[in-house]
Write a structure and sequence with these properties.
By secondary structure, this protein is α/β, with parallel strands linked by helices. The protein is built from nine helices and seven strands. It has helices spanning 14-25, 38-51, 67-76, 102-128, 145-148, 155-175, 194-197, 203-208, 219-230; strands at 4-8, 29-34, 55-59, 80-86, 137-141, 181-187, 241-244. A seven-stranded parallel beta sheet has the order 3-2-1-4-5-6-7, sandwiched between helices. Helix 2 (38-51) links the parallel strand 2 (29-34) and strand 3. Helix 4 (102-128) packs parallel to helix 6. It is globular, with a radius of gyration of 17 Å.
Length: 249
């Protein structure tokens, strides 16, 4: 039997790490990308070795011109690519729009939206050239910010995630006839290092306390939803945005 392969961008920590672990438990070989987090990458690979999972880390700036080809060529070496999870994302420093530099705006758009578009384009192009399968799935990680707009924090990040959700709906309809499913998971505030990198390490706890469930999400809460969307249990689900927000709408 051919090994199935999942690609996860930004898999060295947080939600991405949890997704990698869940997809390996489903039996996939997993290739994940990372930019600079060597310590986190070593941790993920050590866990994979301990559990016997087939996991490959690829250091790669996903905004690079050659990134899609590099990523999927490496994935093809592991087996039959069936899953793409576009998880990598950045916010830039927290603050109102007037404080955001052009470099911040460009980088956030490039990582969160443009790279996701280009990776989707590449994987769909490759799948279209191959014999059809029923287990091909793209899952994009969005954010509740796409709906709230994140005023005073990072409206530019929110705008990119709204774009990711539009991409999800449109591409799902475009490729449904080829048996490719495209969905998104929209996390609420989740306990990851993204808040500290944006300048507010206490943000997850503060915002989470105001949710109906009274806590921030854990990375595995989000990963569980991603996992489900890749399985045959979600075989009639495409073009959907699955909220995992602790009750926030």
């Amino acid at each position: 039997m051919t090994t199935t392969v999942a690609v996860v961008t930004g898999g060295s920590r947080g939600i991405g790490e949890a997704i990698v672990r869940r997809l390996t438990r489903l039996g996939h070989a997993v290739l994940f990308t990372y930019t600079s987090d060597e310590s986190g990458t070593d941790h993920v690979l050590a866990h994979a070795a301990d559990t016997g999972a087939n996991v490959l880390a690829l250091r790669c700036d996903i905004t690079g011109t050659d990134a899609p080809q590099r990523i999927f060529d490496a994935a093809d070496e592991l087996g039959e690519l069936t899953v793409l999870v576009n998880n990598a994302g950045i916010t830039g420093p927290i603050g109102p729009l007037r404080t955001a530099t052009d470099d911040t705006l460009s980088r956030v758009i490039d990582v969160n939206l443009t790279a996701t578009l280009r990776l989707c384009r590449e994987v769909v192009t490759r799948w279209e050239s191959r014999p059809p399968r029923e287990d091909r799935s793209i899952v994009n990680v969005s954010s509740i910010a796409a709906r709230t707009g994140a005023p005073g924090e990072y409206v530019w990040y929110a705008a990119t995630k709204a774009g990711v959700e539009a991409l999800t709906v449109g591409l799902a309809r475009e490729v449904a006839g080829q048996g490719i499913r495209v969905n998104a998971v929209s996390p609420g505030t989740t306990t990851t290092t993204i808040h500290a990198r944006a300048g507010r390490p206490d943000r997850a706890a503060q915002v989470g306390a105001r949710t109906p469930l009274g806590r921030a999400g854990a990375p595995d809460d989000i990963a569980a939803a991603v996992e489900w969307l890749t399985t045959s249990d979600a075989g009639y689900v495409t073009g959907s945005i699955l909220d995992v927000t602790g009750g926030i709408r």
